[in-house]
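Subject: sequence -> structure tokens, single chain

Hey, anyone have a minute? Need the predicted structure for the following. Not urgent.
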Amino acid sequence: MTARFARATLVAAVLLGTSGLGIVRAEATGDLYVGSVSGVLEVVTAPPDVLSMVPLLQAVGAVEIRADGRELYAVTGDRSITRLDLESMVPTPGVELAAAITDLAAPRGMRLVAALPTLSRVAVYDMLTGASSLGQPLPGAVDRLAAAPDDNRVVATAIGSSWVVVLDPATGTMGSANVMGAVRAVAVDERAGLAIVATSAPDRLLSINLDDLAEIANVVLPGAPTAISLGNADVFVAIDRALFAVPRHPGVHDGATPPPTLARRWATLARPARSLTSSNDRTLVYAMETDRIEGFHTADATISANPVVAARTVVLVGVRAAADIVAMPGAQPLAGSPENGAIAVEGDGGSGSLDATSGDSSPPATDTVSGGAWRIAMAAIVPVVILVVLPLLAIGWLVISRTDPERGGRKAGR
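Reply:
Had a minute. Here:
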């Protein structure tokens, strides 16, 4: 019996070690990635959790994910881009550019575009070769970019300026247009081939054709916008602590009549939004605020008569406060269910508390592993199991097998 127990223990330990390795290798991917002073945070959906944190040597600014969802690119320090494999969660050096980077964009293909305001240019980084090159001079200190994974083109502008540039990083071609007012945010509607531009003074939402840069729609906003993002049927606009929904295709404005007022308030934020981004299927829009990320179901924009509150909230404070966020292509939304809940992650370098009400969430499209605490614990236990426990059990098994009379009797009877 002693030998049987030892063998059973050995098998159990091997199974524990191999299952633990699956978690440590981070074969799962998150649904939302956050750049912060402490590194890159990986957030999953079911149940909502901060799955892991990848510390980097320098604070993380802008983050972007390759169109195929395999790699994340993070601005570290001022001029460096670090690559992060989203399966292994292992960072590798990317490239150091000629000037400080304020934004990143990943259009269709294998090129990453970086905004370099001090040079009034963008840099194009080839993800396959690692080579980088500078684009043509732009009308001003470009600091904001927008792209879509299904379109080759990138929209570039400078916040507060009156110009918008559409460029193709693969061919180097570009065109520019001037708008009335000061640009506050841009997005790309790849389905309609439009650049969506939000301006202040006057407060407007413009639709500009990506091919000929003609303005085809102009909608009045009820205040100065700070951020925009696309849903399936609406453009979502952040104005102070409110989110407004504007029909994604409001119709062609003839310019002879006053622009229509189509914006309707549909959600209330806890804090003013610094930026907005949408899940890949555009069923949820995330608002990045000073101390949290709030997720809203975009369907509520059409079925709710009153302003709605966040379906899910991730509180990130201290060194984990978000500098930028990006959604994982192909992942289900962070909200999971319409029930409200919150995750509090303190900025003390690793400790935190979880307070989330989990609803009847549908499984995420990506392979996610829930329970960041379990993953961290396994990361500590597995090396001990492999390096210490397994060799000791193996030695014990060999000693017992040589002295076990039950084992000897079985051999003799064959």
